[in-house]
Write a structure and sequence with these properties.
Helix content is 24%, strand content 25%. The chain is an alpha/beta fold. Among the domains are: 163 residues, no CATH class; 212 residues, Alpha-Beta Barrel (TIM Barrel).
Amino acid sequence: MPTQSGRRAFLASATAIGAASTLRSQPAAPALPDVLRTPDLVTAFGEGRSSQFRLTRSGDRWQANDIEVATTRSGAESVVSVTAPKTRLTRLRLRWHGAFPGTSRFLGDHWERSYGDLEWRGLSGERLMPWYFLVHHAAAFHGYGVKTGAASICSWQTDAGGVTLWLDIANGGSGVELGDRRLQAATIVVRKATTPRAFCQAMCPAPRLPAQPIYGSNNWYYAYGRNVSSATTMKDAAIMAELMPAGASNRPYVVIDMGWGAARDGAGPTAQTAKDYPDMADLARQMQSLGVRPGLWTRPTLTSEKRAEAWRLPPAGGRPKGDLIVIDPSIPEALDYIAGGIATIRGWGYQLIKHDFSTSDLTGRWGFEMGPDLTDRGWHFHDRSRTTAEIVLDLYRAIRRSAGDAALIGCNTIGHLAAGLVESQRIGDDTSGREWARTRKMGVNTLAFRMPQHHTFFDADPDCVPITRDIPWTLTSRWLDLVARSGTALFISADPSAVTADQKPALKAALSAASRPQSPGVPLDWLDTTVPENWRLDNQPIHYDWYEGD
């Protein structure tokens, strides 16, 4: 729960802090770089370190050899397109001259999940800001980004001389073969004097939002995939049935995480189940009989089954090797196989499907390992005619179709591509049932700095509230309170042996709050810290001490 330490001083200044974090009264927007006009410089990059093409401008088009890049403006948006019938392109760089006021501060996003490393910073020319960035100046916010569902993987840089937009149009670690088609690589979106949430809404015109808030339990952070079975799952279901709001029409999910399948490393999609999970369909029926909704984790891009060797993606980074196959989703038959695994899970009766690991599987890297190169160079998908972003989008679409009416949670998925194709998205790296500092870093930072994406891209899942003997309840209860009142998805990961009678009233209250629609929480001090302590929840200022008792 929120502590009383420093509460009086905080409440006295909350109004001023809130005014700096919202836009109730804003001055006229300053002159800022205009990235909707034709760029000042355009550079294209092909395969090989020396394959660089400085394009020459002709009106709103830029050309060199067989390469042509065009920017087409419409209001507060601009479409970037490219043709290159013969050249295998990997990236485009668009550059606009101009300068932001010297007191400006900048916030970028992340490639996929965030890793406790999001923050407002001053000008840093080498900083890559994936997908979009917000500028804060003179108590106003301004947004620069690309629409969700882009055919390229985009990032921004700002420096004293201007703004740079990078569009990764590679195919894996090699160039894409566009042939005769014109690729609409991205749509640039700019909003000045806006709110962060309104800007995210502008980038995502068609989110797929759940009809009711998503909440419940997940067994990962007390079990970590060990000693789990149908029997332990039913214990989880019984606890949730006891704690769920009385008479709630929005019933909670009980999610079985990694560990239910027989295949190593959670490989799926597969109908192979571990001996401790003999009948997944019957287990789903038993869970429903207790009044909870069954949910299941899967790793769709990895399989241990004997499949055509051509389905295997080439070795890169940390990809699994040996008898495990990372599936190439650019092959139609392989994509059908992935979709079939998702359909099997839905057929068993699971009403929520959490699909995980696909970004790491496909690129060989986690988001924190990515930079200018998202993956190792020199490899490509079987189908070289599409960009990595297009192949990933087709994967997400296939999973969406196969899931039917089941809710989807994307984990280690690219949020800017998954938006509109999942009901919920794990927005940050793992919290912890063993180490409070990790929950504080990954959980609080993620929730604060990706809060604008909640209910604009999808329902945000800031990850679980672990309830274990290793984490003091005094700390756990604060994280529980924040997530439950923020409006985002709440999943508790409760060790049945660690839940005490004294904790149950707080858990019931948190689940009850999470089951109802709420106004999204607002971090009030996010401009000044990476772990915000001051929040506006239910239109009231709340202070949390994330360190006291650690």
